[in-house]
Amino acid sequence: MLRFLVLTSLAALVLAEPRYLMDIDQRVVGGEVAAPNSWPWQISLQYLSGGSYYHTCGGTLIQRGWVMTAAHCVDTPRTFRVILGEHDLNSNSGREQIIAVSAIYVHPQWDANKLSQGNDIALLRLASDANLNTYVQLGSLPPSGQILPNNNPCYITGWGRTATGGSLSPQLKQAYLPLVDYPTCSSPSWWGSTVNNNMVCAGGGNEAGCNGDSGGPLNCSVSGQYVVHGVTSFVSSSGCNTYQKPTVFTRVSAYISWMNSIMG
After folding, report:
1. Given 23, 25, 107, 120, the catalytic residue
2. Distance between CA 49 and CA 79 in Å, rounded?
3. Measured between alpha carbons, how far is 71 from 236 in angstroms, rounded to an integer?
4. Which domains are delineated in the chain?
5. Hey, how many other C-beta atoms are within 10 angstroms of the C-beta on 135?
6. Which of 44, 116, 186, 214 is catalytic?
7. 37 and 94 Cβ atoms separated by less than 8 Å
8. Which residues form the Peptidase S1 domain (predicted)?
9. Is 107 part of the annotated catalytic residue set?
10. Separation CA 210–CA 27 (nearest Å)
11. Could you tell me the pLDDT band of residue 9, with boundaries at 50, 70 and 90?
């Protein structure tokens, strides 16, 4: 890790006090509120504290009984659940499905003290299968090893901060983050050696992911279909939307074989 560069993971801050509501509503920087259930594979990952559940990260439903998220979201022992079909964290639309997490599989090479080494990915086994419908669907995953070109259209979705220390909203947001290819993102004036080729960079301008978006999908347009090419991982502590410090994601196509080995 570069000496003067401090990385911050995007999980919502964990506070001991029940006033954690100060963080659960924070969302994507820039962008706009998504149409309800327009990203039907997006889930809210929540943990139990003091008898109540609180949003901490996003995730992607990839099989009826499996969710993909970031390792740093679940590498501390807690009781977790996921909410599928969610849009507004403060309102019940009747479309939500709430399912407990029965098992957690963190990538074996994940090291919380070495975020820049990557491997920030985990799989959650659900206690029961999701009911697929108009509001809850599976995210499409890329073929193993696929690399998208520079400026490929992508969207981040999540309930993270609207700005570094900014305003709050309980509604799911989306922001257009064009992909930044590895040669550009790893150049000295961008992220340099902090990123590796098992990561995907997207954005680098006015829109970005921020605290609370961790684990959620980077949805990229490929042949007219949205495919989940990234798992939201980290940003610069200088600010979520720091120029030429795009949001960094775990590159899903680098981990297909590992995921298949876990899910069978």
Report:
1. 120
2. 8
3. 18
4. 39-137 (2.40.10.10), 139-253 (2.40.10.10)
5. 19
6. 214
7. no
8. 28-264
9. no
10. 7
11. low
Question: Which entry of 9, 23, 25, 72 is annotated as an active-site residue?
Answer: 72
Cα–Cα distance for residue pair 113/14, rounded to 1 Å: 17
CB 29, CB 168: distance < 8 Å: no
pLDDT attached to residue 187 = 96
In the chain, the N- to C-terminal Cα span, in Å, equals: 35
* Site of tokens 């985990």: 122
pLDDT tens, 201-255? 998 766 656 666 899 999 999 999 999 999 999 887 776 767 788 899 999 999 9
Contact predicate 164/241, CB 8 Å: yes
Report the predicted TM-score, pTM, of the whole model to 2 decimal places.
0.88
Q: Is 178 exposed, middle or buried (0-12, 13-18, 19+ CB in 10 A)?
A: middle
Residue in 256, 249, 262 with CA at minimum distance from that of residue 58: 249
